[in-house]
Amino acid sequence: MIAHGVQSIMVGHIGAPEVSRHFRPGIADAEILPATLSPELLQDLLRGELGFNGLVLTDASQMVGLTQAKKRKDLVPATIAAGCDMFLFFRNPAEDFQYMLDGYKSGVITEQRLHDALRRILGLKASLGLHLKPADQLVPPPGALAVIGSAEHRAIAAGIADKTVTLVKDTAGNLPITPATHPRIRLYGISGGADFTRADPLAYLDVVKEELEAAGFEVHLFRTAEQREAAGEAGMNFMRVLAEEATGDYAEKYDAAFVFANVKGFAQEAAIRIKWSSPMAAEVPWYATEVPTVFVSLNQPNHLIDVPMVRTAIHAHAGTREAIRAAVEKIQGKSAFQGTFNENVFCGSFDTRL
Prior knowledge:
Order of helices and strands: EHHEHHHHHEEHEHHHEEEH
Radius of gyration: 26 Å
Helix content: 25-40%
Structural class: alpha/beta
């Protein structure tokens, strides 16, 4: 990437102990710091051995990978002193700015290091032509956001979804499932919970329901005890929901069950386990032995370790309407599955392949 002219690099708050020891023989374990604070990684490796001459940016400064290393008043200027040129995210703007200024005044950030960082910042801005634009044109007006979600963008998203929705297994031969063959669908949703965006983690289920109904299915959406209680039903608990859900006439009420999981992690969470609404929850796929059951992951590719009993598993890779629509079309056999997967999806367990 450097050879191809990348202009800036964000440095992670991650250590590289053996690399630090290579450049600083005899360095004590306690002196090994995250890259954001490591001169040997920023200067000896990135600037020196790799020859990067562009702008170096810290990762978000609230992350514990950085904040655990030093007191805030020390780490703020230390990032620049170590070789970073820009500092990403304030914790408290006035406080952090003062910490940076104090670091300059006390000599933690030298005059040479300050001007070196400023040259790189101004150089990046100049390379983008920002100095030639009127101030009121530096940031696009709110109306420019209208292009997001445009018909052109959605067409691209639909094309990507068509090529990436993946059939991992259909060992029971459940597919295709259509409104003609299986009109009544019991729909279950699994979410990883709310994140800092405060978005409804189960909002995607509305889209799934809409797409299934548009395809001609009769959709019966499952609600957990917590959801039903929040909607005003009194006396709800997991046993009451289970008693109502897991009855002998399940196959008489529903022709197939669809489970759509949109379990997301953040940053380093690369493997996320499914957390059900309660132990022995009614949405756990006990019904896989009752009716054809299709499990669709809209995010993580490793859920089979938690739902090995499902015999039909699909990866849609995104919680977008386009990905959901493509999955629904392919479940019906209206288009072929084109996505691919590797052995990791089976999580090294025999029962996930059954």
